[in-house]
């Protein structure tokens, strides 16, 4: 990929502008307009703990920390740490650091377009592609799914459609590293990334028109390089990744499933809720471009069918995630970005048929996007949770005050147990407490437990227990969280226990916080 100075300047300015616009939107109505919610809060808390409490402030100490205590999503955690490192304790920093993902997006879209049109046209198409909602969400959402979906999509493109990318052994090795890195960004997505990239490698090798031995040789180099990169990752993260996948797909599948009929699931990532949020109108535009490109290719008898292989690969991904019982707009990234690349590829192929007018058409497309499309997007609507700011302030203050007068009942850390996931998440409280009181909380998420007895056993180790408000109860029921069914029983048991003090949080719809004033069991028999 050749990137001339003027194209580099334009893309750089575009990335900076779109990052600023998305951060602004995130502060006003998105994730940063309210206390952190799932799963952003988990990555924020993990990164803050490692940076402030574990001393992960150099590349070496960070590497040692990651090996000793492997994070769930290493690339996302690294992004958060760098955000706190460069921008201080504000939660804005980690979101700003997502600029690296948007930069990768701009360069990848430019590369796809540049394979078929001139560099100026490719630059304009890359800028226009930044208006896609999923692109803006790379910055406004603190999730590994989006960047993982992007790298996954581009890895598949390189394997299937970018014929020159791996003709030499060195480039074949780099492709292997690219594929491996795309899998590492979100390890739990390996159930889709590994087989689909494997399929792309096999099909890409079959479609290679060189001698039979050369494609096999390059495929072996790509595979070996990827496996060499993944081997230590599997050794360090393998067990916990397997456990996470197993609980999501098997043991807790009744919690994480999304209810709906067959049409709802098939349509979710297309014109349904996920597709309308992540793609907007691009689905219709993209599918239209792909169909036109196929028809024009048949009419003009263009022989290269690698483009068609990538379209089919994208369709297979859609069918795979459409049949999954769990649906989230974040998981849709593994379809959204292949569709975006397919759309850009189809458009650039069509523009290549008009070499003299290609630049003008690319300019019209970029200008149309600038005039008619929104430049910033967020999946979260934190503006509707702004009332949780005063709740977080009160709860975190009570936790810091309680820790100052009562020892930890479940050492070495103070345990914070939460019966419902909302209105204020436990990780948001722990992050605020870490900043206010410079202390680490152990979080007990009781809402995924299925019986009262083990929940009470966890509460025996806790210094703080938060019970949800009415809105939090409704949200927990909608999320199929089993533990919330025991809210009233736990409330009554804690009220009868003299060791606990009840605090009704001041709010229109108040949650209830119980603070332990004595770790000793008042009802035990004397020695």
TrEMBL record:
Transmembrane regions listed in the UniProt entry: 92-110, 122-140, 146-162, 174-204, 216-237, 282-299, 305-322, 334-352
Top-rank lineage group of the source organism: Bacteria
Keyword flag Iron: no
Keyword hit for Nuclease: no
Assigned keywords, A-Z: Membrane, Transferase, Transmembrane, Transmembrane helix
GO molecular function: transferase activity
InterPro entries named among the record's database cross-references: RgtA/B/C-like
Domain Glycosyltransferase RgtA/B/C/D-like span(s) in chain numbering: 72-235
Listed name of the protein: 4-amino-4-deoxy-L-arabinose transferase-like glycosyltransferase
Protein's organism: Martelella mediterranea
